[in-house]
Structures are given as structure tokens and as C-alpha cells.
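Hi Y.,

Following your request, here is the sequence exactly as I used it, all 366 residues.
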Amino acid sequence: MQLLDAPLAIVDLETTGANASWDRITEIAVIEVDGGEISGEWSTLVNPGSAIPPAIQALTGITSDMVAGAPTFDDLARELHQRLAGRVVVAHNARFDYGFLRQAFERAGIRYAARTLCTVKLSRRLYPGHARHNLDSLIARHGLHCRARHRAMGDADAVWQFLRVAAAEHGAGALGDAARQLARQPSLPTHIEREAIDAVPEAPGVYLFYGEGEAPLYVGKSVNMRSRVLSHFADDLRSSRGKQLAREVRRIDWQRTAGELGALLREAELVKALMPVFNRRPRRAPLKTIAWPWRGPVGVVEEDREREASDVHVVHNWCYLGTAQSESELAELLEGGPRPRFDLDQYKILARHLLKGRARVVELST
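Below is the corresponding structure, written out as C-alpha cells. Let me know if you'd prefer a different format.
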């Protein structure tokens, strides 16, 4: 079956910002394609439940007043889920649109997974001689007509036009071959169900692979755990060692953190405690440590805006004392027993973050 013969959903979203964890959808358009022809078009404004930033209003023309009376995503989630069911989701920068859809469905209590095709990647593969592949560039290069730029249906229709132009210029077979290569899905290990992957949040944290008899195989960390876990099972990314890990994994566990620093510190702890066989042992080299620049202990604050929660990583003299999520936990860490010994791996992690000047650091009194 060629790409344009497959059931497609050409999707475009407008949103309040770029982060799917805390920004929200303001408009959705879906063009349903069956047998190479449009079989349906559907679009709606969406009430995001928050104000639309002025810069976004200026870009899209969608104002807070326009969406005030629109349905929320929860109101239309089931209808949209039915429209998308069984279709390949095609979008320009599909990671963005698909990421927002998955997060929104998840908040609505609906699990959603689909094959995707990104037309940015498709354009790069089919037209490698061109430097730019954003939608404005495609519209200008291929003479596409966009009825309303930065509005969901206008942009979705431009993506559909690009698919047809690409099929005409390269042939349906070449278009289908390129799409199949780009849309390859990681093949999951025999003992891992898709539901186990879907349960891993697209959020910062650590993930753990266990083998037969609950033997710890690997501990990893990521700011997007689900994507990172899936990457372990992508054939084109795996080394021979990675393929062996994928064969042996029997269970996946995960621990969410507020941010990257918490994930790094937790990974270092778990690697030392569990000694998983597939984690590489760090090379030791002489290291000159930097003097502690504060008068006493500090708290490094990481905020998880999606969960409205914060982690405070308590550090003193480059020693990680622990992470607090409440005033009482913070007091326990500051007033606790024997201080931990200096740990070189933790020092490297902390020094990289604290000395960049981007971390939110609060001096603490004992």
C-alpha cells in the first residue's frame, strides 16, 4: 500500500506555547484522507483554560476572547480520538503536534498512540539540496496556497498540498518508501507490552530495566523518559550491546523527578546501589575540586509545573545531602545525622549545574 492510499490524519494544532507539559491547545484541525482523497475536514477552537500570551495572539490571531466560549479539550477528546483512530498522523514537525495530543489525551484520561509522519523530515529526505524546510519555505518553494497561515486548518491544508506535490514530483513509490523509513516504529522486546511503555511519562526522571529474576540490567536518565526508553528499542540506534540489553529486559520501572538535576543525581545513586550490568563504569581521572562558593548549605530548586511540585536538592561542601519536597523534609536534611562522604560523581554533576549560573540556588540556614 502506498502512503497516499493509507488512512491519514493531517493534523495541525495552535497552542499557548511550545511546552506540551504546561502549555495548552487553542485550535485543532484534522483533514481525513482515505484512498488518496480527502474524506473529511474538522476543526475547532479549544478553550485552553488559561490566557493566551500576547505574542501568541499576534502570531495566530487567536485571542483569549475567541476561545472563551469554545469547548475544552476534555469536552471533545472522545470525538477527536475516534476521528484519529487507525490513522497515520501527518504533521509538520510531528513531534510537536503529536506530543501535545498525547499529553492532552493523557490529561483527559485517554491513552493515545499512533504512527506518525513528520513532513519536515520528509522534505529533508526528498529535497536534500534545500537548506530550509519550515512550512513557510515549503509554501514558497512549491507554490502552495495557504488559506490562513498559523491557523490550524490553513496549515494542515498546506501540508496536504505538499504531500501531493511530493508524490507528483518523486512518484508515489518513492514517497511511500521515504515515509516508511521515517515512520518506522521501534520493535518492542518480546517480554515488554506497549502498555508498559505508555505508562512511562514524557517527563524528567530515571528509568530502570530489569531482567530475569528481577536482576537490574540498566539505569538511565532523561528529561523525556518515554522517548529515551523507546530509543533503546530502535534498530538503527542500537549497538550490539544495546541489542543484547533489549533481548534481556523483562520489566521497566521509572521514577519521576522535577528536572534534569534530580534525574542525574538519582541515576548516580541507583547505579552505585544496584550495580546494573549494562551501565558503563565511569573512568576515574585526577580532578582538582573547586572551593565551595557559599557560606553554608544551599538548596537547588527544580520546579515541575505540570504537577505543581518542587524538588529542593540540598548540597553542602559539594556533598549531596538529599532531596526535599516539603518543609519538614528540608528540616530533616539540614538537621540530620552524619554528613555523607564526598562523592566524585555527584561533585561532577553538581559542579556542572551550579557553576553554569542557570540553577536557582537558595542559601539555607542550619
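The chain is about 40% helix and 20% strand.

Thanks again,
Q.
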